[in-house]
Amino acid sequence: MIVPTPMSTRGEELTRMREDLRRALKKPVEQRRWVMVINTKRCTGCYACVVACMAENGSPPGVAYRRVGEVESGEYPQVARTFMPTNCMHCENPPCMKAAPLGAITRRPDGIVALHYGKLKGKEIFERVSKACPYNAFSFDDGRFYSQGTPAPQLYEKAPTFEYEKAWVRTTGALPIGTARKCHFCLHRLNAGMLPACVTTCDGGVMFFGDLNDPESLVSKLLRTHQSITMQAALKTGPRVYYLVDDTQAADSLKACLACHR
Amino acid sequence: MKSERETSNGGQAWWLDRRSFLKTGAFLGGSALFAGQLQRVMEMMGTAESQALAADFAYPLARPENILYSVCLQCNTGCGIKAKIVDGVVVKIDGNPFDPMNLTPHLPYKTSPFDTATYDAILCPKGQAGLQTAYDPYRIVKVLKRAGKRGENKWVSIPFDQAVKEIVEGGVLFKNVPGEETRKVEGLKDLWALRDPKLAKALAEDAKAVQSKKVTVAEFKAKHAEHLGLLIDPEHPDLGPRNNQFVFAWGRLKAGRGDLISRFTREAFGSVNAHGHTTVCQGSLYFSGKAMSEQYKEGKWTGGAKFYWQADTGNSEFIIFVGASPLEGNYGPPLRIPKITEGLTSGRLRIAVVDPRFSKTASKAWRWLPNKPGTEGALALGLIRWVLDQQRYDARFLANANKAAAKADGEPTWTNATWLVKLEKDGTPGAFLRAKDLGLSEKDLFVVLKDGKPLAVDPYDEASAVEGDLFVTTELAGIKVKSGLQLLRESANAHTIEGWAEIAGVSPRDVVDLAQEFTSHGKKAAADIHRGVSQHTNGYYNVVSWYSLNLLIGNYDWKGGMIKATTYNAAGAREGQPFPIGTLMPGKMAPFGISVIRHDMKYEETTLFAGYPAKRPWFPLSSDIYQEIVPSIGDAYPYPVKALFLYMGSPVYALPAGHTNIPILADVEKIPLVVANDILIGETSMYADYIFPDLSYLERWEFHGSHPSVAPKIQPVRQPVIAPIPETVTVFGEKMPISLEALLLAVAERLGLPGFGPDGFGPGQPFTRPEDLYLRMVANVAFGDKSGDEVPDASDEEVKLFLNSRRHLPKTVFDAGRWERTVGSALWRKAIYVLNRGGRFQDHEKSYDSEKVANKYGTLINLYQEKTAKTKNAMTGKPFPGLARYIPAPLDSLGRPIEDSGYDLRLITFREISHTKSRTVADYWLLHLLPENSVIINESDAKRLGLKDGEAVKVVSATNPEGLWDLGNGRKRPMVGKLRVIQGIRPGVVAFSLGHGHWAYGASDVVVDGKVIKGDPRRSKGIHANAAMRVDPVLKNTCLSDLTGGSAVFYDTQVKLVKA
């Protein structure tokens, strides 16, 4: 017997998380503790988050900060499909940081693991940090464009993107071409009082975001009232992305994933 | 009309290096990307970096002046969007938090757009990728004229004015094309034969008199001797005027453009042939809704709405999704997914899914029933049988025979379940018993039996409640009668529950469990159905069966039950609205005659009646029969067509067996003139004589309306958010981008059609620009459906924001001064209020009225359809059954079963959430998710057939044994895809997702102005296997159809897979 756990509508959740975020922004940055909470039971494998992220961050072919794994298990007709969204875990103890040149990857006071593109140039560095990351969070920007090879280059690929609160225009051949890239919790949106793009666009209401230092925030409440795990906790990387796993909120089939990834 | 030639720097190799990005690039049609408006955009963009890099960084996409609210069109749902613009370029699209399609509950309408700038709501991946549809390198910007044979994909770009002139005047238009050196094309001026509305009315009335045999053909000819030349065929005056030989067919169309096309085709040009695409999507769903909503007025069943119901997803406790996957399609994603997932995690909701494929929706279900395709109605009747046998129905609701009885029970709707139906001699249910038949009343009333006594029923009587006995079989005054509910019971009793389960290929236990659960939540349960139910030869009766199940629990208009869409009227049809578009039309024609798809008319009542079978089917109960448009033209039945306009539709790609359309479209004798309006050269527009570039959904207007699962009353408004990409032309002295509007206005100008021009909406009321229509419609929405319903005035700040956020739009699409004059100063600030929010949206709390929805259907629902039962199938001569029943599928158009033995797999299609049918292949972000689709079968079938995951297989069928698309001109494309072997599909079924496997739409090379424009191989990956779908063996040039509800049949074809 499943004991229903009250959850609210997505409109209420998005409004509340936006308020949580704005409350956190009033505090000094070092008092914020940004976390992401993922409820896989709600994930429908819609991939809106993947595309929203690509559009928001102008990620070119070969680059995606966000993935949604999809697995079919069981045998007809007892079949299950599991959807598993992942991105950078923003570890408290990030292995990538250690693998990178000094100052190329830093942990911000609010917990975001930030890339400094200027110091991350080159495939060799990418391979090093990517190998160090147990979560496969990195991709390499090799300078391609989606409208390459077509009759006309397209304006959206020329337009600036705003990662780390700077304008980046790749069509001039400049950064972040030639660097490692990954999720930054949409830092530029957070500081503008906006939730990350994957959170706002999420069709299933899977994604939660907020300040874990604030006991009133929705993410704090979710983590207080539900069991959760972090991925590959044994590695002691201290991810700040949590997955709800109790019976009421985890996909039943999540166990298939957890068999290997717990 | 004057065309502006723009300087061209096209034709160069582009992408020379990254630094040249800004300097090169050619659109199809020889025009330059960076000419005109776009040059300005690019200049502005040069300064963006320096601004953004300033020390006090402010995220530009969080600023209200960089945001415009509009409506998506990546699929037909039309969710609200926030388009975020940097220096004139849309760089990001998010969900509109004002719109209930994007958020539950949505933000109150009074919320300031300054506050919502940082509030993004939900959107699906297609919506997120939409800017790649607007910024598509294969878009055309100039008119293309065919320079080779139809379909050969050789084009020249020509000035807009020349193209319009050629279409209107006709002549030897293709003298450079081999074989057409002397072919003379009749222009639209020749087809616009009947021009006098008064004469039209007289001819229409007399043609009708010929049909009803009050007048002979000879008498008609004598009376109208002078005007016989205006008719298609004086021997058959009911075919109507030659104007009907002009056909306008569309794909995705909403109000606004819909009003324009109707005004142009029907009311100005006077052709009855304006037809949409409903039947390729879910026709039998809409037309069973129409039949069930017909109302009895003045002795006739009339006014049935072409609509359907869906579950009030956010409040239901149990939903059975049948052939519907709201997690992937089904007008679902942002509207319904959050309501479903919230319900699943809060414990409010449980869902069951009936689908041969283990869809994403099924993956969230409490119970998955992988039924045999085409047996959906059988399953419904199994559930109905259990509900009736176990007496789990809402007897109180079903007993209500009229409005007063419903009112007394607090029920918004009532049914005719208890009305008595007369049996024909052979026992077939026919017409309702009338009170007159028993001498109960002189009035035209129906009859129920109450405690054994007949009572007269006025369905709409609000004062005296009439209830009836539910199950009646009796004889009254010598007439054998049964109640509607009794007839339903007999339909359900055709098999035992085990028998129904066996037909459907599911376990009887599941049937009982579903029925038990369905009847355990009061009114908060719903059976929610879509294409998987309707796109069969038995689609109509499948739908009616599921809707009847809903009727048994009386869940219509109840919170958590079945609800309908409700919109603010944009056409000004409600009393007091400022601009009644339909009547603001001097010289309006009332077109008449039999349509080319023979809809809304009974074969027997026409002069074409020549016994059964008719040459092709007739569709007296449905309309917009997409699969009949081109094939009927091919057979010249009921008459030849001279000119076909195609708008935003791709029948060749989208229809089942769409390949049958190709040889007809390619045949200049069968259709002398084909004009397409498209944003690029698609699978169907490639066969056109002329392609006029259109605006993408980010550059234009439309009033998208709503969907049944949305409880609040809404009217989302699509509006231009970026500068137009096609070139600028002059029509009626006004500068505007080439577009559907420019094309129709220019044709109207050249022909002098009524309802267009300086006095198009009345003296001094011009219709010379697109906005002349659309802003009037915005004003209607702002005014509301009655006096006192107006939106507030925009504040001074909001007015400033309105202007500032459109600072990047050129005068060709935005002119505040003219806009204000069009709307009128009284409504101008209200119109701004609407446009600043992307439409008008009723507040969430106003959309429910305690335990019911506020926007009610609120009238009679026909469990028994008298009108249907009294209508005959033109192929068989037999009446259509008037209620739920199971008819095995597939049947051909003569009603004979199709076996196709030796073809061992049933073909079905589905939708990945990342694609719609024919247009999302242009979106590279979506191709990142799924570069190509697959041919999907169960592992047990793969083993049986010796096929391995990942290998290439060809799909072949009895009517396409070679498994090919024959594109004409020697081009063929095999239907080959990669096999994917999974567990989550019923053995014996093979599936592919729609949207991949293109051969046009930028996928193949085309020649424009002598230069080869290379196709993009990313767009041709994967398989599109519609050409394997069964061709009707009688008609031979179209797919199978449901002759009652009109659906084009997708899911009734047996195929086999062969190693490619």
Characterization of the model:
The complex is a heterodimer of chains A (262) and B (1060). Chain A has 262 residues and is of the alpha+beta class. Chain A contains nine helices and ten strands. Chain A has helices spanning 10-25, 48-57, 95-99, 123-132, 155-158, 187-190, 197-201, 218-225, 254-261; strands at residues 34-38, 67-75, 78-86, 105-107, 113-115, 139-140, 180-181, 207-211, 228-229, 241-244. In chain A, the strands form four sheets. Chain A has a four-stranded mixed sheet. A two-stranded antiparallel ribbon of chain A has the order 2-3. A two-stranded antiparallel ribbon of chain A has the order 4-5. Chain A is globular and about 50 Å long. Chain A starts with 9 loop residues before the first helix and ends with a helix. Chain B is an alpha/beta fold. Among the domains of chain B are: 310-563, Dimethylsulfoxide Reductase, domain 2 (3-Layer(aba) Sandwich); 905-1059, Barwin-like endoglucanases (Beta Barrel). In chain B, 25% of the residues lie in helices and 18% in strands. Chain B has a nine-stranded mixed sheet. The longest helix of chain B is centred in the first third of the chain and has 15 residues, at 197-211. Mean pLDDT of chain B is 94; it is low at 1-27 and 30-54. Classes of the chains: A alpha+beta (262), B alpha/beta (1060). At the A-B interface, α1, α2, β2, β3 and α5 of A face α1, α2, β4, α4 and α13 of B.
> Overall pLDDT of chain A, averaged?
93
Count of helical segments of chain A?
9
Number of individual domains of chain A: 1
Number of strands of chain B: 46
List the strand order in the largest sheet of chain A: 8-1-10-9
The CATH architecture designation of one domain in chain B is: 3-Layer(aba) Sandwich
Shape of chain B: globular
Report the biggest beta sheet of chain A as strand number plus sense, adding barrel if it closes: 4 strands, mixed
Q: Overall 3D geometry of chain A?
A: globular
Largest interface: A-B, 81 and 101 residues
Strand content of chain B: 15-25%
Low-confidence stretches of chain B: 1-27, 30-54
By secondary-structure content and strand pairing, the structural class of chain A works out as alpha+beta
User: What is the assembly state of the chains in this entry?
Assistant: heterodimer
Order of helices and strands of chain A: HEHEEHEEHEHEHHEHEEH
In what range is the share of β-strand residues of chain A? 15-25%
